[in-house]
Amino acid sequence: MIRINENYTKLQASYLFSEIARRVRAYQAENPGKNVVRLGIGDVTEPLPPACVGALHAAVDEMAARESFRGYGPEQGYDFLREAIAKNDYQSRGAAIEADEVFVSDGSKCDTANVQEIFADKLTIAIPDPVYPVYVDTNVMAGRTGKHSKGRYKGLAYLECTEANGFVPAPPPEPVDLIYLCFPNNPTGATATREQLAAWVDYARTNKALILFDAAYEAFIRDPSLPRSIYEIEGAREVAIEFRSFSKTAGFTGTRCAFTVVPKALHGYTKKGEAVPLHPLWTRRHTTKFNGVSYPIQRAAEAVYSDEGRAQATALTDFYLANAAVIRATLAELGYTVTGGDNSPYVWVNVGKDSWKFFDKLLKRAQVVVTPGAGFGRCGQGYIRISAFNSRENVEEGMRRIRKVLK
Ligand code: PLP
């Protein structure tokens, strides 16, 4: 008899985006003539930077010739990309990260989901609320939680992100082992200051805890005083793993390339309290279960660090940030309290009532799709997330409709 992993049965039946899709489909089936503007899902809309496309084409040509063809590459990524990342994303900002501490992968979703398997089954895990659902669900699958009840899984330490703390939680009074943080944040769009991150790094050092820092939206930071990497904080090399992605930085959501930084100074502990470096553990996990990102895609990612690539990628994030500014201004003008959208592509709006009811109202009356905050956790109730990933035309049309319905 083949037994299943019953932890899967604890998972909430409807994943947020499937529920949104279901409601939109039902609405469209009843109202076939109505055109719906989607400001919900966080997928990019603009094409790849030309520098990346050029590098991709050239690499495909290399694959077409016997002399330059490449088969399996190094699982952790080619040196040319790992070196470009270490130099440009870290060393140039004073963060001492070496190329062999960078693990190239096909996505931060997989990396943030997979990382938990190098840790013990029994851990106290701190997870922000609201949150990118992958962190929670993968720990549920791994059996680190109890059942779901009233919007929360038993056994997790939830870090409440509210207007009162500016959506940046402070370290809890009690010790926890594994801490998920994401800045600029999905869904709230909030960013963390150097001092706020330093408090977390201190906490982790004191408690022998580990921070999993998701910086998938780092490229949207424009305020020069904000840290782009947790490694800009002193001591973070000893207590943090960082995740980054080319998905939102350079439009790679359909192309797939990301990376995880595991510094050699990081340690976990055995039951007996002996310190064990995490770098060899992640190397073993990554090389055993992953066979590398394709060569042409890694060449395309490398091109993001060329002069033209950098300028083109910045133009992309500037474009989405300008969308975010239109969204922010519209909602603020209508009297709503808004967060995010200045150093992030998401605008988090306090709608003062049930998120799903507000979602339905905007869908049915304005034909605009947003993301109900409640889908990201209990503290998201009463909020909606509006995504700036769209054409300018769609954002403007969406805002016109919202203004009409909410004024
Ligand atoms: N982390 C956060 C916070 C995200 O919002 C997303 C995607 O929406 C990801 C990671 C996934 O990125 P990738 O496309 O690299 O898998």
Structure report:
It is a single chain. With 407 residues, the chain is an alpha/beta fold. The chain has twelve helices and 17 strands. It has helices spanning 16-30, 50-63, 79-90, 108-114, 133-141, 194-207, 246-250, 278-289, 295-302, 307-333, 355-366, 392-406; strands at 37-38, 102-105, 125-129, 148-149, 152-153, 156-160, 178-182, 210-214, 240-245, 258-261, 267-269, 275-277, 337-340, 346-350, 368-369, 371-372, 383-387. It has a seven-stranded mixed sheet with strand order 2-10-9-8-7-3-6, with helices on both faces. Helix 3 runs parallel beside helix 9 (295-302), helix 4 runs parallel beside helix 5 and helix 10 (307-333) packs parallel to helix 12 (392-406). The radius of gyration is 21 Å and the shape is globular. The mean pLDDT is 96. The chain binds pyridoxal-5'-phosphate. The site of pyridoxal-5'-phosphate has 14 residues, from helix 4.
Topology, element by element:
Layout: H1 16-30, E1 37-38, H2 50-63, H3 79-90, E2 102-105, H4 108-114, E3 125-129, H5 133-141, E4 148-149, E5 152-153, E6 156-160, E7 178-182, H6 194-207, E8 210-214, E9 240-245, H7 246-250, E10 258-261, E11 267-269, E12 275-277, H8 278-289, H9 295-302, H10 307-333, E13 337-340, E14 346-350, H11 355-366, E15 368-369, E16 371-372, E17 383-387, H12 392-406
Parallel strand pairs: 1-15, 3-6, 3-7, 7-8, 8-9
Antiparallel strand pairs: 2-10, 4-5, 9-10, 11-12, 13-14, 14-17, 16-17
This protein binds pyridoxal-5'-phosphate.
